[in-house]
Amino acid sequence: MEQKTSFRPGRAEAVLGIACLILGLALGSSLYYGGFNLGFALSALGFLGAGWLYLGKSGKRFDGYTGSLMALSMAVSAGFARTDDGSLKFLALWLLGGAVCMGLCQSAGRNLRDPRSLGSLLDGPRALFRFGFGSLAGSLGGLAEAGGSGKRVGAAALGVALAAPVVLVVGFLLMRADAAFEAVMDLLPEFGGLEEWTVWGSCGLFAGWLFYSLCLGLCRREGEPAPVPKGRGLSPITWNIVLGSVAVMYLAYLVSQLAYLGGGFVGLLPEDATLSAYARRGFFEMALLVAVNLGLILAASVRGRGKPGTVTRGLCLTLGGVSLFFVAAAAAKMLLYIQGYGLTRMRLLTQVFMAWLAVVTVLVCLWLFRPKVSWMKGGMVLALALCAGLLWADVDAQVARYNVNAYQRGSLETVDMAHLSTLSHGAVPYIAALCQDEDPLVASTARDILTHCRRPLSDLRGWNAASARAEAYLSEHSRESAPAAEEIVP
User: Fold this and answer.
1) Is the pTM value of this prediction over 0.70?
2) Which has more pLDDT, 152 or 486?
3) pLDDT of amino acid 65
4) Average pLDDT over residues 155-184
5) Using CA atoms, how far apart are residues 102 and 467, in angstroms rounded to an integer?
């Protein structure tokens, strides 16, 4: 008979549960009132610290890889309080969630796949659903088993846990049914009415409950057996034919199109080709080809019979070299585009992605000859490091700085004011530098952009460094321009 998993909480679980309750409410409140800014960053850091401390208290050991994931995840979380770039935060949020779940799963020893393999990416979602959502009922029911004589402590905790969301929902429905009761509830001090409490309180309680269940499930539930390899791989001859055919196709393409592709390195464009068309044509196709090449290299090395032979590794290395050339050519074409038309958020992120792809390709090529080189770990750590770097560097500030400086130096004939108007608060100081530009249209547009940049801060939950800097800069700028305005008034 299968033994039932015990979710009965002990002292460590009690501390974790209280921490998750407080952090969950803080997270819900911060997201509702302040978005993904300082409040979210502090809540995320709290969750990370609580989870890792609990796993350590439960006897789980962290190696250098999982320790790096923890440290970089904390750097990414803190970066949410640095920038006001919503699109970058959206991308960072997905990467952060995947890295945290994968790191916790591997630290607890619940991963099904080798952390050095591409399949380890699936351990993160699996941990969230199997050990997180799958332990929600068990972690809540475990409260009834807690406490001493009569289990009164656990029963009381379970009652509070169940009563809180029910009271919020009932109160919300009563407010919608009775205007007088809604008016009374709106008199609640400073934290908003009961309707707002219901929204962020329920979301916060669920977030805390889910994280508590995830940590408890990782430490208490039994893991699944490692998957059994299915059959034998393909013959090396088969893989060599596939790789050789693709390599011949690439070599024929490179010989016939070397002048076209190499033009980006020396700044020469083909005849009858505009800079924008040359830079954009084939860019995403090249990135996709690099991904296909990496897939072929990994498949031939992992799914072949035995270790890859000399011929197989040589063909894989050829595909890796072609991939690096494609990455370099695409990056050079994009650099020409940037020099001609200026920098945008997408162009900068594209260059960063191509750099990441080049490093991963090099790691895979090294792995062919040195199996101890973990390309997967290196790629994951590099992705988190780049994400943290982009958040802390404030992409929008760097984009505005480059465009404004290039325009003022004369490197750019015009500056894309429409794009500058879409950037976040990190761009404010650089847009302000255009307010006195010789071109009256640029100057008036810059002043109009700054007029719509003011955003009052309700409380610290919505604070971030870029917005605070922009607000201080705008306040100082308005005070400096006030005397001049008073002199004009008769």
Assistant:
1) yes
2) 152
3) 92
4) 66
5) 32
pLDDT tens per residue, range 435-466: 888 899 999 999 898 887 776 666 788 899 99
Q: Is the pLDDT of residue 206 over 80?
A: yes
